Description:
This protein folds into 2 domains: 13-99, Alpha-Beta Plaits; 136-297, Rossmann fold (3-Layer(aba) Sandwich), CATH 3.40.50. It has 11 helices and 14 strands. The protein has helices spanning 21-34, 64-75, 77-81, 93-99, 141-157, 173-182, 193-205, 223-228, 240-245, 247-252, 270-276; strands at residues 13-20, 40-48, 51-58, 84-87, 104-106, 109-112, 125-128, 164-167, 186-190, 212-216, 231-237, 254-265, 281-288, 291-297. Strands 10-9-8-11-12-14-13 form a 7-stranded mixed β-sheet, with helices on both faces. A 4-stranded antiparallel β-sheet has the order 2-3-1-4, with helices on both faces. A 3-stranded mixed β-sheet has the order 5-6-7. It starts with 12 loop residues before the first strand and ends in a 7-residue tail after the last strand.
Amino acid sequence: MASGTRPGVHATVTASLETGEQTAHKVADGVTERFAAEDVAASLSDSGGGRWRVALYFRAPPDKTAVRAAVAAAGGKKTAMALRFTRVRTTDWVRESLAGLAPVAAGRFVVHGAHDRRRIPPNRIGIEIEAALAFGTGHHGTTRGCLVALDRICKSDNGRRMKILDLGTGNGVLAIAAARALRQRVLATDMDASAVRVARANAGLNRVDTIVTVVKADGVSARGVRQAAPFDLVFANILLGPLQRIAAPLRRLTSPGARVVLSGLLPAQANAALAAYRPLALERRIERDGWTTLVLVRRRRRPG
Length: 304
């Protein structure tokens, strides 16, 4: 999903609006994809009552018309008209964007910022994420669904030797969670160079950089991905279209008994994803905040 950056620049202008959760994530993702990664950051917070606040942080005063156009393309003209621009004091805008984010629990995992590091219970696995944009912080239903799926997989498969792949890793949350919980090596990929840098930094921050390898790769056809196969556990937290396109080659990269965790899906899209990944069987369906996560399994062939 959308990824974050940590360029260490200063914000002079913010833009904010309130809307529904799904629209909020689409807006944050759309704006951060439209503008250079070093020029903008986005944060999301739950305002209650089904409303979410989107805050955009710009390094320099932006072209307001261009920003509204990006918001309109992602969330519609009415959403774009609700956007309000504010000039703020010079500050560390990454820290500013994280300050209002509360820790998010998903199973045994708690995704948090540095400001909540000391508040994580000892019986939980804390995942500290400093570069937070749109998807991938754990606040989004797709990431939370994957973490819940991982938690359940850990209870049944912990201790078994596994090869793990995280496609479209973004900030690296899922790769870090898998490495910390299963203590296995993880290959994480993303097509965005900024995401790769951030995921590597976050892996180091969480002390799993020796077992989490993050590489720039587009999809599953990259040589490094094919050479590392077959995989016993795969995370693909992207969107329906890309999930359908990579279905056939991804199935070929899995080992017998492997689990494939698909997310980034609306409930109405689940059947289309299942159809694309046949003959993998549905093991579990997880619903979080209007998003669906599917856990599929490649059945082992019976003797004879």
